[in-house]
Structures are given as C-alpha cells and as structure tokens.
Amino acid sequence: MFLSIDRLSHTYLTKTTAVTALADVSLSVEKGEFVSFLGPSGCGKTTLLSIIAGLIEPTEGTVLMEGEPLWTGGTDARASRRAVGYMLQQDYLFPWKTIEENILLGLNITGTLTPETKKRALALLAEIGLGGVESYYPSQLSGGMRQRAALVRTLATDPKLLLLDEPFSALDQQTKLKLEELVWTTLQQYEKTAILVTHDIEEAIAMSDRIFLLSPRPGRLVRTFAIPDELRRCPPLAARRHPAFSPLFQSIWKEMEDLEAAP
Ligand SMILES: Nc1ncnc2c1ncn2[C@@H]1O[C@H](COP(=O)(O)OP(=O)(O)OP(=O)(O)O)[C@@H](O)[C@H]1O
To answer: Where are the transmembrane segments (predicted)?
Structure first.
C-alpha cells in the first residue's frame, strides 16, 4: 500500500476556540492510483492534504507512506515533503522569474538540478505545448498556460505523490476541461499517484479511480465510490460523455444533498 491513513483526527486550537476539522478518517491509496477527496467547503479537505504533505501534524492518528510513518511523536516529516509535489488553485509562479527559472525552481531548492533533470523538465514543458515560452515571464501567459507551467514545475522533481488542491477551479470552463485532460494524461504516462481535492462532482468522476466523500465539518469519511472500469479507463473528456457518467453523478449528488440536509 502506498499511503495508509488510520484514524486521523485534527483539531485547530486558537486562544479562544477549538475547531475540529477532521474526525476519525481512515483510508488508503495504492501506488499509481488517482483518488479525489470530495466534500463541501470547510469539510477539512485541505487539512487532510496538508497532513499528508507533512505540513501539519495531526492531533490523532497515523499516516504511513510506503510503510514509513510521517508523524511519530514529534519527529518532523521532511521525508514526505521531499516525496510530495503540490499543485494549487493559484499557480504561485514567481512573477520576476522566467518560465524556465520557475520550472527549475524545485530542482534548485532540492539540490537536484543537473543537466539531465533540466533537460527532462524542458522536454516536459514542450510536451505539454509550452515549448518556446521558456524566456517569457508569467504575466505574458494566460491562466491556463501558467497552470501548465506549474504542472511542469511540480513534476520536474519527480515526486512520488502529487497533491492537487483545486488546481482547476480558478479557470474558465474550456481551459479547465483541457487542463484536466492534460493532467490526467500526463499522470497516466508517468504512472504517478495523485490526490485531488475538489468540490466539483463531475471533475472528481472524470479524473479519479476512487472518490472519498467527506461530510461537512468535522470531516468524516462517509462513503468511498469506486469508479467503474469503463469510466476509469477513459480520459476525462470521454468519461464525461460516457453513459455510465450521469447515473454516478446523480447518486453522488444525492448523497451530498442528504449530507448537507442532515442535522
Ligand atoms: N489554521 C486554522 N485555524 C483554525 N481553524 C482552521 C484553520 N485552518 C482551517 N480551519 C478550519 O478547519 C475547517 C476545515 O478547513 P479546510 O480548509 O481543511 O477545509 P476545506 O474542505 O479544504 O475547505 P474549502 O473547500 O473551503 O477550501 C474549517 O472550518 C476551517 O475554518
């Protein structure tokens, strides 16, 4: 098992309040799988991702990555931070750096910039249709192009796990669909394990092998949906047109409505 999460809970403590963001979440992700955390705003999706990324130490529970505990009694989780690549809603490209400098940033920071890794990153940039923009600055690119550059920066360090925190939500519909297709195809090609955080049911179905549905705060795992093989094998655009898509959408929609209506 690539990632095992067991009885994870997290409470944020401030001077005056205690906010329980996650309660008793257990799940696992296999190597090469693409899973989504789906749930309404505030259900703890980002908290869960931040724990997996080694950025927040959970109040309770364990997370094992390839059998190694991420958090053990106060030790930090540097190993996980090295193994994980993040792609967020905002591209966080540095505006004063060129696209080439931006995509090589992770390699520079981790001390893994070599002629080979640089060549690989530039080849990936060309592969996703951005060959020729190496010397441009982010402000000279469209939002979709910037997110594609962010994807290359994320993949350049060859992370074991990709954490995608609503990376498509700030884009217009057409750009979003194209980028979903590109991310899905690229991750398949490189056989990457990925976790997507989203509140978009269609996106979760189109991209994932499995969907973990979380309840409103505190986030609990209420249901796991395994995407049927015939949908799972389709790239996102084809999956959206598949006859099995709509019935699955309806049943997840219903489940989310029931959750939100629950007292
Ligand atoms: N640093 C913090 N201190 C206190 N409470 C926090 C902190 N970060 C998050 N929370 C609270 O924990 C809960 C879960 O937040 P989280 O950002 O993980 O949810 P989410 O599902 O990702 O939400 P969204 O979809 O809106 O981004 C929310 O009620 C939020 O207000």
So the answer is: none
